[in-house]
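2024-03-11 09:14:02 INFO receiving multi-entity request
2024-03-11 09:14:02 INFO entity count = two
2024-03-11 09:14:03 INFO echoing inputs for audit
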Amino acid sequence: MNRLLAVPGRRPALVLWVTAVVTLVAGLQLLRIHIDTDPENMLPESQPDRVFHDLVEERFALHDAIVVGLVNEDHPEGIWNARSLGALHRLTGSVLGMEGVIARDLMSLAVADNITQGESGELRFEWMMREPPATDAEALRIRDQVARLPLLLDTLVSGDGRAAAIYVPIESKDQSYRIASEIGRLAAGLDTPDVVHITGLPVAEDTFGVEMFVQMGVSAPLAGLMIFLLMWYFFGSWQLIVAPLLVAMATVIITMGLLTGLGYTVHIMSSMIPIFLMPIAVVDSVHIMSEFIDRHSPQEEPATTMRAVVAHLFRPMLFTSLTSAVGFLSLVLTPIPPVQVFGAFVAVGIMLALVLTVTLVPAWVARLTPRQLARLAPRHGADAAPQTTLARALRAIGRVGFSRRAPVIAGAAALLVAGLAGILRIEINDNPVRWFKADHRIRIADAVLNRHFAGTYDAHLVLTRTDDASGRFAAETAPLLGALRAAGVATDEFETRIEAGDFDGLAAAIDDALFEAEAAAIAPLEALLAAAEASRTASRWFQQPEALAWVQSLQAALAESGYVGKTNALPDVVKVVNRELRGGGAEHYRIPGSAEGVAQTLLQYQSSHRPQDLWHMVTPDLRSTTIWLQMTSGDNQDMTRVIAALDAHLAANPPPADVEVRWAGKTFINVVWQQSMVSGMLWSLLGAFATVFVMMVLLFRSLREGLLAMLPLTLTIISCYGLIGWIGKDYDMPIAVLSALTLGLSVDFAIHFIERLRALRAADPASAERRLFEEPARAIARNALVIALGFTPLLASPLVPYATVGLFMASIMLISALATLLLLPAVMGRATAAPTEVPA
Amino acid sequence: MNARIACLLLVATTTAGAETLTDAAAIVDRANLAAYYAGADGRSEARMIIRDAQGREQRRQFTVLRRNVTPGGDQDFLVVFSQPADVRGTVYLVKKHLERDDDRWLYLPGLDLIKRIAAGDKRTSFVGAHYFYEDVSGRRPRDDSHELVETTAEHYVLRHVPLDKASVEFASYVTWIDRNTFLPMKIEYTDEAGKAYRRVEVLAVEDFQGHPTVTRSRVSDLTGGGHTDMELRFIGYDLGLPVEVFTERSLRTPPREWLRRPGD
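2024-03-11 09:21:47 INFO inference complete, emitting structure
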């Protein structure tokens, strides 16, 4: 091992060249980068809820949609004036022609169909607003028409008349930023007093991807720069800190190159890998350089000094790296693929950083000229006790820790209790729109549009009839088919149709057979036809009036939950058409009394300009239907409350037999992955905690010191998460993932602390505690400060997860450094004192 | 023997049609007559299979009775649904006028309801199919301006531009009219951007009583996918359909004797 560690000092050029070539090759892989911001990918592709969600999107031809809102707060009639509707009409027209927009499914007043009574009581199907209104009076006439159509009101125009919406379905989610930007440009050129807002989950997600890319390119390097400025401040030598700079850069580039090169996409999680790796990559270098400066004397070859330093620090560095890697590797236990990828690659990066630290740093130092090295000496001589503020503060901390043990332990215990209380207050919640700060244009659009409309967040409650209609039919009609075969009629096609459940096709085939049939076959054929028709009508369950009544009862229950702005479903269509067929009176706003009545009502609805709209609500076989929920909040908590409300309703009012009730939709899918994330994170955290504990016991070959090493990190995790509970910040994806970082980084300080104290006590027990609070304590404090302050640029990021990481990183560093430097002395006591009991 | 005479007559009519026409309006008028006015009256049974982009099917089966009030002018239609069973007995009565809006009535047996339907917009779906009302009853030649674009060995190729752009969803359409039968064999509708988004095509033509008749055709949605196939069977012309068949009385009590299949 020692021989291996000596290589960088002897062959520095070789080490530098090999690193450079490997980094360059990995860097080239970055050109293949593929960004993925789809939260659906938080679930494995085979996850049952995701499979069902995809199936529902296909079954009902549902697409991700951008929501564009025109808001008029000034005009007395709100949006109901010729100028605003003209703008809406023009904007709709332009959007319809855009590449990537599914024009036929676009929803806007300008392409909405209207069903009304003509002057002599005739039924009229006409476009609601084929041409924009020429006068304000015409605009008000359109308002009155819309008021009669519950499917449009509060969806395409807000109930308060202040806003109109365009739902822009798009072919692919990764087009939404481009399309939203184009719509934004069109809106800017629109001659209108209205304010145009653009939102929707696809826009939020895709915009996040674009801004994430910017953050990776700007924030992360900026954080890196900050770290190196701080290191320069601490070490005072440009030449020296170039080494950790190279280590950090090579670590990040090789790890990300490996990730993209292996074909993984850069998801929101993996985009943070550089930010996580940067501090971890420099911490070992900080320890090495701190000790190198302390030990170096002009009389000695720098390579020799460095070899001694590396040999001395290798064990704690190996263990700190291993523990950090274990913390991140534990994320592989979560059932969320992007989190697994993130955990695995950070773990790889950590071990890579260790290798680079023990090779690149010595190689670099070996190349420094004696003159450059000499400049290090005056500032930090080997035996000099520096009188900087930091140094004095650390000595004070050391004195407090060792002498005022009871108050320190009591303070820690109080912090622990407060932290636990805070954890109990934690609200588990997430919403991709909230990944933007409150003043981001998407957040503003989200707030404004959800204030006016029934909601821009979607969920679907899918109801599916599951009885085996064709199987029952086959059993019932077997004797008839036998009779037909006896009469010489070929029944192959009938049987194929029956098996496929295609009663329509069967009826047509029987009809054809009847035309050519011999006399003996006519009676059984007619009986079969009658049976086929009866089975067909029965199998089309969602055109039975009682089925529609049940769907309505679910809609009512959902509305009562208080978290649903509006539901849209098949009964709404049937009732509107029935009313207009019967003269338009409000008393006819109901479901017809027979399945035939419903079927004929739907046939009329299909005689409109947009017959395909029906299939967004029900399948052509009338066996599966969906209730579209519009919600004003995309928070998982609110979706969870809706689910609970429905569950309670279904428990009290069980659904009919053979009907499956199941959730789908983007807002629902976000709840699913978040739930599996929270439980997954808890298990991975516990698993990592146990593993790290075992490693500590093995490292120190002592149960007591193993427990001691776990103390600061336990306090850090509990107080950091307690803080989240107290300040009321939602426990979301970034927060969950940071637990792994907390665990990995806060144990580092304890390892170095205990390891160094042991060595010092072995050398000279009398001065050990005093000396511990010189160079070793400074290395710990410098590390904490470098990382904590180094990440302040992230606070300026418009993306909340990045700001959260920055803030959290600072808290973790400060709390765990303090916990290590204060609590460990208090618990351990001076060497002469009797061992203190370790709180469990 | 009868068949031979019919053959001779057919040859005679085809040769007569073989002279090359150069006047777009004249071609359109003859095409209109060939496609919608064969015989003094007629009946046929239509079977529609509507397939969406996912290949899911819906079926419709109905009988159409037609009577020309004046040759190339007003017409009456009675459309009676027989399948699927839950819409059986649904009836449309259409009085097509050249000089004013059509009169349309609807009977829905499930609601026991007769309702007049406004004729304003004829470019709505016909009972959920990719066919429009106008495809079934015919678009008035005078609603468009016509231009003969090309004359090929088999077809007159014409381009038509609507006179009232606001009343239709297309910017223009092109028809390929058979030079012998004058049946429009293919129609393609183009949007403002110049993209063809809808196609009507004839898949089979058969001769009935000297009238070349479309027996199978298809309308395709070229952007969203999906198409509707229509098959026409049990076709007869010059049946002597009485005027009373095309009155409101036929809505509730369809004229059984005229709806029956020939030979049934």
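2024-03-11 09:21:48 INFO post-check: Chain A touches chain B through 55 residues (CB under 8 Å).
2024-03-11 09:21:48 INFO post-check: Chain A has 30 helices and nine strands.
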